[in-house]
Structure formats: structure tokens, C-alpha cells
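Morning run. Coffee first, then this:
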Amino acid sequence: VEEAIQQGSRDAPRDKSSDERSVTMRYVETNPPAFAARTAHAQAGPDGKWAVELAPATASFQPTWIIAKSGGRTLAVDEVLVGEVWVASGQSNMAWPLNRSNRPRKGVRRPRPSRIRLFTVPRTAIDVPQADVQATWTSAEDSKALARFSAVAYFFACEIGQETGTAVGMINTSWGGTAILPWTPVAGSPE
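And here it is:
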């Protein structure tokens, strides 16, 4: 499972456990990207929700692991890169996939795809905010995932990666043909 974490931020991984057990989260690094602290703890509330504040991380191309333990359960996420994380959103121009762009093969060769992580939010119409989505991060080395990913978002990731010299995670939330009203908060909607 690939993933990306924003460098220099205090990311707060969250989840929900089935009980009020404590949660321990730690990094396992083969080449440490200088995390100030390697272990963090949290206590799940009565609703089972928990959040862990992690120390700011320095960018690294070296994949790391994040391991969370609660009770007898262990969840391990490998291939985690630390770098820039950006959201790409919009309508049809942003949703246009790389395999339908003018020169898709040129895009596949820029820069090293192993340094770019892709996340596509599924297109699901729903009236209330959701705590989670059914999707996973993938590496841009996955040619099938890359072919379906937003061309604009991917080329933007290439540019950011070249300018900053860091790994890049792109979150694609675009949906062609949608009206603007569903993208605005309810408080901003006309009555």
C-alpha cells in the first residue's frame, strides 16, 4: 500500500476502533527521514474515534512504514513517502485522464514515477461530509492507475516534484459535468 504524508506538518492520522482501547502509532524507517519522534499514543473516546499528532516530518524518497496497534490488532502501511501533498479538483478539464491527453507516453517518462503517489476520490453523490472514502494510494509506477489519473494533476505533480526535489502526493477529486452548487458548503448555498 503506497501513501504520502505532507512534509513539515503535524499530520493527525485518525480512525475509529470498535472500543475505547489505546492506540500506539510508530514509524519504522530503513533510512530515517528525520522524524522528531518515532512513537505517538492516543486513547479512543467512547465513540471509538481517535487521532494521533505526529511530529513534523522532513521530505524523503525513502519509503517508510507507519504501524498502528490497538488491543490485539495491528495495521501496517508500507511504502509511505514524505513530501508535498496537493489536492486537484474541478470539472471536465481537471478530470481528463492522462491516457486521453495529447502525448500520454511523454508524461509517463517524467520524472521518476516512484516519487509520485496518486489518490483518486471515488465519485459518489452524498449530502453529508464523510469521514472516509473507499480508495487507496497508488504509485505512479502503476501504469493502469496512471492512465486513468487526471493529466493536469499528474503533470502538476511532475512540476512540483522537479521544483522542490521532493516526493509528491496528488489527491484527485475532480468530476466532469457537475454543477457548482454541490461543491459549495451548505452555509453558502442560496435558500
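Residues 49 and 172 are 26 Å apart (CA to CA). Good start to the day.
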